Amino acid sequence: MVNFINFVDKISSWVGKAFSWTIMIMTFAMAYEVFVRYMLGDPTSWAFDFSYMMYGTLFMMAGAYTLSRDGHVRGDVLYRLWKPRTQAKVEIVLYFLFFFPGILALVFAGADYAGESWFYKEVSVMSPANVPIFQFKMIIPFAGSLLFIQGLAQVCRCIVCIRTGKWPAHLEDVEEMETMLLNQSKD
Q1: Gap between the Cα atoms of 150 and 14, Å rounded
Q2: Are 12 and 64 in contact (CB under 8 A)?
Q3: Measured distance CA(133)–CA(135) in Å, rounded
Q4: pTM summary value
Q5: CA triplet 57, 156, 2: central angle to 5 degrees?
Q6: Which among 9, 78, 159, 168 is least buried, having the fewest CB atoms inside 10 angstroms?
Q7: Beta carbons of 168 and 91 less than 8 angstroms apart
Q8: Angle between helix 139-164 and helix 100-120 axes, rounded to 10 deg
């Protein structure tokens, strides 16, 4: 089970890191837009569409990566006070009650939405440039599928925790600045 968890975490990590490059693409496109708008007085008609497509892509594709790193926000005051076994039992129930139904709805409704968009070769109505957006709608079911697979890994994590009393380690590749500073101050 731990091998499955690590395999799925690595897939989520690879996809998350690959799509993180959309930030650079978006940054260069917006810098170009600012330059031509304010320096040359000739704004582009595609910049707004491009920025929300890139940001939307980044946001959707970061979901599984964030889940694999236990990075989603928890607002539960009681959760942190529970023993790991109790946390895992509650989490596994919540995954099946809320997470999987929501993600499956995202996958199936997103696939229908994307399919219609491809059929009509949908373009953006936000600008006169008629930027094609149908290809970006495929991100919805793709991101949902990755979240579903990562959710299966999280359920396996819960099962391991229920059996052993300890949460399996998450892959780590980024450290919060606060954590780094705390660790440095301890040294």
Answers
A1: 13
A2: yes
A3: 6
A4: 0.85
A5: 95
A6: 78
A7: no
A8: 160
